[in-house]
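DM from R.C. (forwarded with permission)

"hey, sorry to bug you on a friday — could you get me a structure for this? deadline for the figure draft is monday and I only need the backbone to look sensible"
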Amino acid sequence: MLSMLNLFLRKAPFVRIVIPIIIGIYSAYKLPSSVYASAIVCITLFVSFSAIVFWQHKVGTYRYRFFSGFIGFIMLFAFAVLYFQLRKPSSIDSDSSTGIQVQVIQFIGETDKNHKYEVFLKGVACDSLLSYVDGKGIIYIPKEEPSTKHNTGDELYLSGHFIPFLKPDTRFDFDYSTYLRNQRIVFRYLVQGLDVVDVEPAYLHPTLLSVKLKNYLRNSYLNGGLSDAQLAILNALFLGDKSLLSYEQKSAFSKAGAMHLLAVSGLHVGIIYMLLLGVASLVRLKRKKVLMAVFVIACLWFYAGVTGFSPSVLRASLMFTILEFGRISNKQTGIFNLLGASMFIIILIEPLSVFNIGFWLSHVAVASIVMFYPKINNWVHFQFPPFRWMWSIIAVSLAAQIGTLPISIYAFHQFPVYFMLANVLLIPLVTPILLLALLGALLSFSSFCLQLILPALSSLLGLMEEVTLWIESLPFSIINNLYVAWWQLPMCYGAIVLLLVYINYRFLNHLKYALWAFIIVGSSFHVRKLFIPDEVVYVAKVSNKSVVNYIGPDANVVYSDADLTEKEVSFAFSGLWAYCNAKSAHIASKTNDKLNSLPVVYLVGGESLVILPKGAHWPDTLRATPVNYLVLMGQPAMSFKNLKQTMPAKHIILPSGWKWYQKKWLGEERDSVDNVHVVSKDGAYLMALSRN
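My reply, with the result:
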């Protein structure tokens, strides 16, 4: 087994290089930052490695080459740590008020009260923050501002205050602050006043040029007759921007197993690559290899720039670029070495890419297709070409799913049951859609040409959405609340690799190793279930709404003081539900906020939990009933003293931000309450109990 691994790494040297680099970046993210100490370690290891290699070459012995390999591994690990520390993201975590000057990149969405814009920081009134100038940020402009529509390239003087990057309340919450930092977002800013700077910038940043081109193409498609829903799909599928997709569209494509079609990746770049080769053949560039390669590579990288250089597009563009160089030089490169080179270059450009789930899905999908597709495709042989073509799509889908399944469940906690059906029906639509979209982009200057092209494009996009909605509507289209822990991922992929080794070489020892690996993986899931609590109570503030989620063996109820959207529920609870293996279908219950509302009472693990609605009231002559946990969804229509007389509580939890009246309502009794948990100040409250 070790000899086979050594042979594989010899054939794919970039894989051997990139493994310690990735481990080093992940380690540097957790280690304390000390550039000086890391630099000394790197220099020491480099000198040691060079001395060992020189000695081995001088005496002509490679008996101890494993030692030089080990030192080389540690050296690359140390260099990765140093490189990450030099490029580690930083952010403005204070809530200080100061004036700033920004340049608008693009509009990225809205909240209930604000419009959101991505911007470049061009100036700041506070000298201590000058190091963040030219960094990206997000500004929130209130909707009541007289002019809330700003275009790419506009420069604004803003007054307001920064919004700190907060840690998630629990480990089940989506870590939005870390996500923004990994996108190199250095600040968030709530605008209280603004002035537009009437000045033409000296030059446009490449990012602004890309956004302006996207805006131009979007306006051309929209003016040509595409609906907003169709434009949102095309914007994601062709331009690599999902910001226009509604939550319902994202949910439908995700449940149908077709979300990968809306993420510009190797499939899309490969189709465009084939189209470019066809164009080059039409203009008779096929015989001029160098000129043809320059044309194809330039077009691919221009398209990658337009889509924003996402990891999947970068990976595909790099691989096709290397393939073109190989075609010119008549040399072939192994696919795994290509993948290793792609990962190495992407990490060199942006080390934070390793924390992007698309980086892993893109590379793992290609590796899995290369490993498993030939085997699966040979299971069935069809003489009829349409059947053979359809089976090849199914084989590719299965091969990609084998490799990406553990990561997908780890990140998204769900599995689309009809992913093969979605690929068979939707992938044939992608090629004509991309072809028409490309023609529309090239002929966007002519409204006449657009009127000829866009009706067909509109019909195809409409058909794509209808097919997706139909697949989503099928029974049992999605399995929710699946969970894979981070420490189970290496075990899953180890088992997959051992299975592949057995399939390729048919040695009984390899089958034994594969079976043991799958037994260990299965046992790990069983062991994890033993530690799952029987009942969970989660009290939080979701979009400024008081929320209590009770999860039991046969129940999953969400109580709130206001109606919650499906998006808010999914965003707030999907991680927790997956971890607890909760029922997929939750019951939403809005607490009655009328006068004399009755409490909701639960017995959780032998302890009493009372959820008290806003406006709750009952006679203070009732017999006192002690409770363990009292959750106040809103201010009761009775004083705390009267409440304490009839319902003395050991723990009081306030999910909403009651800062302005807490002291007044608690009154003189405030000092007698030891366990008051305020969610707005102390974070979400999580109570997990087991019956055993």
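R.C.: lifesaver. The CA atoms of residues 21 and 80 lie 5 Å apart.
me: no worries. The chain has five domains: 2-86, 100-210, 226-480, 486-530, 535-689.
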